[in-house]
Each structure stands twice: as C-alpha cells, then as structure tokens.
Amino acid sequence: MSLIHDDLPSIDNDDLRRGKPACHKVFGENVAILAGDALLACAFEHLAASTKGVSPTRVVRATVELAKSAGAEGVAGGQVMDVSSEGLSSEVGLERVELIHLRKSAALLEGAVVLGAIVGGGSDEEVERLRMFGRCVGLMGQIVNDILDVTKSTAELGKTTGKDLVVDKLTYPKVLGMDKSKEIAQKLVEDSKEILAGFDTPKAAPLCAVTNYIAGKIN
Amino acid sequence: MSLIHDDLPSIDNDDLRRGKPACHKVFGENVAILAGDALLACAFEHLAASTKGVSPTRVVRATVELAKSAGAEGVAGGQVMDVSSEGLSSEVGLERVELIHLRKSAALLEGAVVLGAIVGGGSDEEVERLRMFGRCVGLMGQIVNDILDVTKSTAELGKTTGKDLVVDKLTYPKVLGMDKSKEIAQKLVEDSKEILAGFDTPKAAPLCAVTNYIAGKIN
User: Fold this and answer.
1) What pLDDT tens digit does each residue of chain A (219 aa) get?
2) A57 Cβ under 8 Å from any chain B Cβ
3) Which family does it belong to (chains A, B) (predicted)?
4) Nearest CA to CA, how far is A47 from chain B (Å)?
C-alpha cells in the first residue's frame, strides 16, 4: 500500500499549520459567494465540455448525478439541515445526524465516485456498488471529522478544533458518545473494503488507499 | 401584439408594491446562500433530466451554454466586476460598463434564448443569430434598469430606486448621461427586432413582445 500512498498528492503540512485565510477573509463575503457560484457552474461546464471520448448519454447521466450530489438532496441541503440543527438536543437521535452526514458529506464522496464510474464506462451494477462505497466512505469521513474535532488540538489538525462544541452541533460523538462513534467508523471501513473486494484489486487500490488514509486519522 | 401580451404571465403589482422580503431576510444569509447553490445545481439537473426527446448531444451543448452564462464569464463574474466597480470614476468609460452589463445581465438573456434554440433543434446559424438577439435585449434591459433607477420612484417601480446612486454604481446614465443612454437602448431595440425579422413571424412574436415589454418601461 505504501506505493499507492506515495501516488496521492501530498499535503503541505506547513501551509496547514500556518493557517491560510479563507476566501471570504481575503476577498470579502460577496466575492466569496460569487466565487462559489462560478465554481459550481465551472464543474458542470468541465463535465460537459472536457469529457472527450465519452458518449453524450453518459455525460448527461453524470450531470444529473453531479447536480443531485451538490444540490438540495446533497451538499447544499445537508448543510442547511446541519446549521438548522445546531443546539438541538442529542435526543433528536441518530437518524437525523445520519441524514445530515449522508447529505452533507457522503453525497459529495458518492458523487465523486459515481461520476468516475459513469464516465469510465462502468455497468449499472458497478455504478451502484461504487455508489454504496462512496456513501460508506463519506459517512465514515464525516464521523472521523466529528471525532477529530473533539480529540485533536488545533495545532495537530491544522485547523481550528472544538468548533462543533462551540455551536453545539449535532455530531456522532454528541449523539452516541466517542466509543460507539469510533466503532461505527470502523464498521464503515470494513463495509467499504468489502464492496471494493468485488473489483479488480489494482484498479480498486487507490480507493482502498483513500479509505485507509481517512480512517487512519483517528488512530 | 396585444394578444401576445395577454399570454405573458401577469405580475401581481399589489405584491410588488407591498414589497415581499427577500430570501436572506426571511431565512438568514447562510440559508439564502445555500438556496442559491441548490437552485443553480437544480437548473443543470432539470436540463439534463427533463429534456426528453432531445438528443444527448444537444443537452450536453446546452449544459456548456448554461454554465458559461451563469459562471465566471457570465452572471457571477459580471456581478464581481459590478461590485468591484462601485465608486469608480465615470472616466473608466463605456467599455467597462458595457462589459459588466454584457456579463451580468446580457449573459443571462443570451443563455435563456440560446438554450431554447439548442434544445428546440435550431441550426448553428439560428443559434448564433438568437445569441445576438439575447445579447442585445439583455444589454438593453440592463440599460433600461439603470435609467429606471434614476427616473422612477420606489412606489412606481415596486422596488427601491436610487440605489445605484447610493453606492455610486457604474451605470450607463453615469457614464453617458440620460439622453445618450436612452438613445442606445432604442438602438438596441431596433437591432433586436432586425435580428428577429429573419425568423418565422408567429414563432418570433413572443421574443418581440418581451423586447417591447422591457423597452416600454422607460416610455
């Protein structure tokens, strides 16, 4: 696996530790909002204009997936649920926090994986199996993120931690406690790898490496 | 023409005069930003998922057009230029204000018309002629908007007027004066109708009606 890890783009930890200011800090909130809109449109343009050699039918199908993963049923809708749930009692339960995480984070990973599968010529059955993989890893990644916000210092993580507690965000540790959250994350890692086991091993290796990379952050 | 006007959706002037609060006033800025993102994604989903009977090649081509009209080269980029130009001297000139208006407003009209032309099966030549029509009407509409902001009262227009002056926005009246602005708007109306004259008259009638409707606001 080490070779595969070497192939992943490296992250400049010095940059992370220094903490680069976000877009809205540098250019103002109005420009940051418009940059977000422009980049969202750019994603669709890239998909439609740059996928030479892919049948237009597949490009149209991928466009629907991208829109669903970004829009009201995906990241944007999940983020609305997330900010609307701040301060809610943990009694609202696992179902709600899981739905938020599935929309906000898992939809993004699901979209990324499914788009690759569609554009890469995957069969319907392969696309649906990879959808489940993306959903598992996305949910796992958000649970890991929730855990790190509690267990790591700002210096260790390279971004401000403890933020979820400050705004009383609905997270897995809040609803289920730390041990149960780690257990669920581990189960999702196993589920993800089980799904990948059905694919050609060398081709699935990068997805396996990403899974290990995210899961490894809480160890 | 009166029949065609009757076919246009009517605007409830009482609602306009009462002044309904905007999304960010009712739901907060964070939710309004996310609603914008979700609706942008929804436009692409609608185009890709709901255009039955249209060849995927045309849908992909329309997707590129939609992205360009909304993104960095279109509305979002034009709006960035617009807010960045507040307070600039009128000496920056006509070229800059025209570029802002072409991106911010004309790109939207151009996109709307071109998408219809592509999805409706127009030839390349028809698409490009309608693109010029959309650009003319869009630019004309923005100049009309600039003029109304100066000449009409808030009660007459149903929205707050005089706002451009408050933030010292770069507008046609500011750069060229009122008479010259009206003259250019009128010339654009004539150009628009000349382009439409090349199409089947009954089919082009709604576009002609929209042109008259917008232009009529300054008379």
Assistant:
1) 333 334 444 445 555 556 678 899 899 999 999 999 999 999 999 999 988 899 999 999 999 999 999 999 999 999 999 888 877 776 677 888 888 889 988 999 999 999 999 999 999 999 999 999 999 999 999 999 889 888 877 777 667 777 777 777 778 888 888 999 999 999 999 999 999 998 999 999 999 999 999 998 877
2) yes
3) Belongs to the FPP/GGPP synthase family.
4) 9
Structural contact between residues A13 and B12, judged by C-beta atoms closer than 8 angstroms? no
How close, in Å, is residue A69 to chain B by CA atoms?
Answer: 9
How confident is the model over B79-104, as a mean pLDDT? 83
CATH topology of domain B55-218: Farnesyl Diphosphate Synthase (1.10.600)
3-state SS of chain B is CHHHHHHCCCCCHHHHHHCCCCHHHHHCHHHHHHHHHHHHHHHHHHHHHHCCCCCHHHHHHHHHHHHHHHCCCCHHHHHHHHHHCCCCCHHHCHHHHHHHHHHHHHHHHHHHHHHHHHHCCCCHHHHHHHHHHHHHHHHHHHHHHHHHHHHCCHHHHCCCCCHHHHCCCCCHHHHHCHHHHHHHHHHHHHHHHHHHCCCCHHHHHHHHHHHHHHHHHHC
Q: Can you tell me which residue has the tokens 């390279």? A: A158
Q: How many CB atoms lie within 10 A of CB B179?
A: 9
Residue in A35, A60, A71 nearest the CB of B38? A71
Say which residue the tokens 């540790």 belong to.
A173
Best B27, B31, B39, B40 member to test A by mutation, with max A CBs in 10 Å, is B40
Q: Do A76 and B41 touch (CB under 8 A)?
A: yes
CB of A26 less than 8 A from some CB of B: no
Read off φ and ψ for residue B55, nearest 5 degrees. -65, 140
What would the two tokens of residue B4 be?
Answer: 């065609």
Which residues belong to CATH 1.10.600.10 in chain A?
55-218
Chain B contact present for A147, CB below 8 A: no
* Whether A100 contacts A85, CB under 8 Å: yes
**Interchain CB distance below 8 Å, A45 and B60:** no
